[in-house]
Design a protein that fits this description.
The chain is an alpha/beta fold and 524 residues long. The chain is built from 18 helices and 19 strands. The chain folds into 3 domains: 155 residues, Rossmann fold (3-Layer(aba) Sandwich); 139 residues, Rossmann fold, CATH 3.40.50; 188 residues, Rossmann fold, CATH 3.40.50.970. The strands form 4 sheets. It has a 6-stranded parallel β-sheet, with helices on both faces. The chain has a 6-stranded parallel β-sheet with strand order 15-14-16-17-19-18, sandwiched between helices. A 5-stranded parallel β-sheet has the order 9-8-10-11-12, with helices on one face. The longest helix has 20 residues. The relative contact order is 0.11.
């Protein structure tokens, strides 16, 4: 048996024994030993093998599977530039602490810096953004490096010959035994205050909704969530409520407990900054966000020592402004990007999954969706990029019976190559098509000289026709009624709904008008 075949088989067998279920592979020559070994494992029903020709998309596809499963997902590529294409997904995995295993094939170390074809220094290429970075020509024990969380890089040196020279049943007698992580014991906190508020970042810092709701109950605290589709009793339209400085002062809390990162709303972050005391709960404080500060920090959710007396008048004030914000939404036109967010949130059935793209879609759902529960939601909020969104959604879809994604038009076009390997799982993508970068019309850049050329960036493309050009199904909706109807139809595989929107400037005006109306109602 060649040393490359032995290395590949040992690695694959060990990963299966450690509980790996899904592997994402991009074709190449130097990774042939791994490709063949994983294929043979798939043929025996030991893993699910997903082939993606574009390494960047492959890494985001694996990221989506890892988000949905919580398990490590290997993504396998050949040497050279293929490895560098993993970098965007690695950054996202690092900052969101997602379990991504990078298996990069390499030439032997003796060929580095010799001008050998497709050979560069792959060891250390991802810097501090991976938890472990191992470079080896020989089998190693993977148990320790997969016992934590976050991305890991294993650079495997394969020498010629790359193809197996035997037909042994090397997978016989395999016994998968998934890693068991030790339980983390939480501490206790004393909370003598009566006005407590829990603010939850979009990824919940990896905690379950039940864990967060239990903490909120112990604190007697309302919940403000960047993701209103998980907490049915969260305060609705919080970014609108807190857009008024006078309201922020009136609703000031004695203690604000921030779970995860709050990255969407300036008004919510302004509220946090004006609070008397801030407690941050996030496991990433230990190894990723080590410079983050607060009055009190925790890596896990602590236990509250004693019962908390609540201020009923303060709670009533939150609900009063919640009603005022809902009334301000009456100024919305019948068709807008805000309405797309509200319709999607309303229409999706329980137990479905929803991936929400960065930029405007995730902010619109935070501001305009009515809180509910029953949906598994996902977003790439580690670095909030618009790259790899289709691929991530496809990866998530492998772990759910019914998956949806809301993606802006630029983010959709950015990852359009993912459609060359369309998922066969049930995935409906709603593309919010406003012909460009709509978020910039809501930011201070609006109106600067050259805005359309350098910020608005209109693409002028017929997205439905592009999708159909890949042999996939697509439809166009132009009002809320058509969107309601489109979302009620179930498509067995990938389907794209293109929501054609009014121009970006009008949509920005709509958002500003809602805030203006809310502030007027507050004064009444």
């Amino acid at each position: 048996m060649s040393i490359s075949t032995a290395l590949a088989r040992h690695t694959v067998r060990q990963l299966i024994e450690l509980g790996i279920e899904d592997v994402v592979l991009s074709p190449g020559s130097r990774n042939a030993p791994l490709s063949i070994a994983f294929y043979q494992a798939q043929q025996k029903g030991l893993i699910n093998l997903h082939v993606r020709i574009d390494e960047r998309g492959a890494a985001f596809f694996a990221l989506g599977i890892a988000k949905a499963s919580g398990k490590y997902v290997p993504v396998v590529c050949t040497s050279g530039t293929a490895v560098a294409n993993y970098f965007p997904a690695v950054l996202e995995a690092h900052h969101s602490d997602v379990n991504l295993l990078l298996l990069t094939a390499d030439r032997p170390a003796r060929l580095r810096k010799t001008g050998s074809n497709q050979t560069t220094n792959q060891h250390g290429i991802f810097g501090d953004f991976v938890r472990h970075d191992l470079d080896t020509p020989a089998p190693i024990d993977l148990t320790r490096i997969l016992s934590g969380s976050g991305p890991v890089h294993l650079n495997l040196q394969f020498d010629e010959p790359l193809l197996p020279e035997d037909s042994s049943d090397w997978l016989s007698g395999i016994n998968p035994t998934p890693l068991v992580h030790g339980e983390i014991v939480s501490g206790e906190v004393s909370v003598p205050t009566t006005k407590n508020l829990v603010i939850v970042g979009h990824d919940r810092a990896g905690f379950s909704a039940d864990e967060i709701e239990d903490l909120a109950d112990e604190l007697g605290a309302p919940i403000v969530s960047e993701d209103p589709l998980v907490f049915e009793h969260a305060i609705a339209h919080a970014p609108i409520i807190l857009s008024d400085e006078r309201v922020r002062r009136e609703l000031a809390a004695d203690l604000v407990v921030v779970i995860g990162r709050t990255t969407l709303s300036r008004s919510i972050n302004a509220y946090i900054q004006g609070s008397n005391k801030v407690m941050v709960i996030d496991p990433r404080l230990e190894k990723i966000d080590t410079a983050r500060t607060a009055d009190e920090t925790h890596h896990v959710i602590p236990k509250v020592k004693q019962a908390v007396d609540t201020d009923a008048l303060w709670h009533d004030a939150w609900h009063k402004y919640e009603e005022i914000a809902a009334a301000a939404l009456a100024v919305l036109p019948d068709w807008s990007e805000a309405e797309v967010a509200a319709v999607v949130a309303e229409e999706l059935e329980n137990d479905s999954a929803l991936f929400i793209s960065s930029s405007r879609p995730i902010r619109d759902i935070e501001s305009f969706a009515v809180p509910r529960s029953g949906i598994d939601t996902y977003a790439n909020r580690g670095l909030a990029g618009i790259d790899g969104n289709i691929s991530t959604a496809m990866g998530i879809a492998t772990k759910h019976d019914e998956t949806y994604a809301v993606i802006g038009d630029l983010a959709f076009l950015h990852d359009i190559s993912a459609l060359t390997n369309p998922t066969t799982d049930t995935l409906t993508i709603i593309v919010v098509d406003n012909d460009g970068g709509g978020i910039f019309s809501t930011l201070p850049q609006r109106g600067v000289d050259g805005f359309e050329a350098i910020f608005g960036t209109p693409h002028g493309r017929d997205i439905a026709k592009i999708v159909q050009g890949y042999g996939l199904s697509a439809e166009v909706v132009r009002d809320a009624k058509e969107l309601h109807i489109a979302l009620q139809r179930i498509h067995p595989q990938l389907h794209v709904i293109v929501a054609k929107m009014p121009d970006r400037e009008k949509n920005a005006d709509v958002i500003f008008e809602v805030i203006k109306k809310y502030k007027e109602l507050v004064l009444l």
